[in-house]
Amino acid sequence: MKNIARITMAVSIAIAALFTSSVAYTQQAAPVKNIVLVHGAFVDGSGWRPVYEILVSKGYHVSVVQQPLTSFDADLAAVKRILDLQNGPCILVGHSYGGGLITEAGNDPHVVGLVYIAAHAPDKGESEADNGKRMPSAYKSLQKPANGFDYIGPAQFPADFAGDIPKEQAEFMANAQMPTADQVFHAIIQNPAWRTKPSWYMVAKADRIINPDLERMYAKRAGSHTTEIEGASHSVFMSHPTEVARLIIEAATGSSK
Prior knowledge:
Blueprint: H1 2-29, E1 34-38, H2 49-57, E2 61-65, H3 72-84, E3 90-95, H4 98-105, E4 111-117, H5 128-134, E5 142-143, E6 149-152, H6 157-161, H7 167-175, E7 180-181, E8 199-204, H8 212-222, E9 225-229, H9 236-239, H10 241-254
Parallel strand pairs: 1-2, 1-3, 3-4, 4-8, 8-9
Antiparallel strand pairs: 5-6, 6-7
Helix pairs in contact: 2-10, 3-4
């Protein structure tokens, strides 16, 4: 009888372990359906609309952060507020300066994958400004008023920031741009999430705001799944929404495996 009891108990434990493993695997394999999009400097979240619409049509729940661009801490807090609203795992996407934000915010437990779209991805102890000096960009239109809020000269904005966007739209962006606190570009990254979480990277090959070679360095260093877009300006998230959405979906699919 004792042997039968021992056997029964062993079988019960094995079944329980198998059930627990199956549940854990199911949870891990569940597709990631939440996407959080973070814009960069000088623009707002509305530029993500084409990408947003593609992802929503594919069944994703998409949130767009509207950070104020007044300080790195304030912007990071804005990202975290949106992450707190997610009801499950999510993919965190950043463009340009937004890459620095997702590099820190990506440590949030909701985040299972990072997507960098022509974005900075600094390491611990680095800032976007210092990295930009290592591989200088092509544009010379950055204006730095005494009030501490930078902007891109409107006359040069279309060519420098949005070279593959229709002229009228690029001119509107130039005159609707959000001045950005210069200090945000000098924020020092403390805990880069790409060191512990998978990442995907899109290089804009005609980017004049961030040197494409710097983008390649970021992607290689992080071990990112990388794609390059021929002729794409810094506004690649607007000019190539299909390719951007495809990369985000790849991240959502890859992070659920």
